[in-house]
Every structure is written in structure tokens, then in C-alpha cells.
Amino acid sequence: MEVFQEYLACIDNPENRARVEEILVWINKKFPSLGRRIAWGQPMFTDHGTFIIGFSVAKHHLAVSPEKACLNHFSDEILQAGYSHSKELIRIPWDSAVDFSLLDKMIEFNIADKIECSTFWRK
Fold it and tell me: Which intervals hold domain YdhG-like (predicted)?
């Protein structure tokens, strides 16, 4: 988790910082084999060198980037959780609960779906 400390320290709002840290710690414990790195200014997790999920902080929400294929696969569940999304990211409002079950399913999906992927992003 040390790799994320500088990123977390730059989040001005202490409640938002705590929320992001909670999610990153949860993923770290739930998926200890995933790689951790900061790239494109955001914390992300990788598996065998391929992207699994990333996060970024916005004024009104935490943006979750699971890649388009994963987002499309879980689109209905994302909406049922009360989150909005674009083609590339999910918006979790700061005042909404985090659906850890959904995060778990998305991470598991990406790990399984990209098991033979040899590139960082899906082609």
C-alpha cells in the first residue's frame, strides 16, 4: 500500500481520502496477488502486467475505471447500485455507499476475462 500513500496524501478532503483508502485497502486484502501502481495519475491494480481496475478522484464522485468490456458486462448492476456511468468509468458519489460486492465481481471478471491477455489494455 505504500505505493498509494503519496496519492492519498494529495486528496484534500479527509472524508474522501478515507473513502479511497478504505477501497484500496479492501482490494489489497481481498486480492493480494494484484500488482499496485500509480499510472496516469491514478491508483490502479494489475494482474500479470494487464490492467484490472483504476480509480480517480473528482469533485462530486470517485471514478472507477474497470475498462469498457467490464463496464458493459455489469451495466445493469451498476445502475441498480445507484451509480451513473459513461463508456469508460463509473461514478460513485461521495455520499453513496460503496457496493463492495459489485467491485468484487468486476475485479473477478477482469482477472478471469484477461487471463490470457498479454497487453496492458484490452484490444
Answer: 17-111
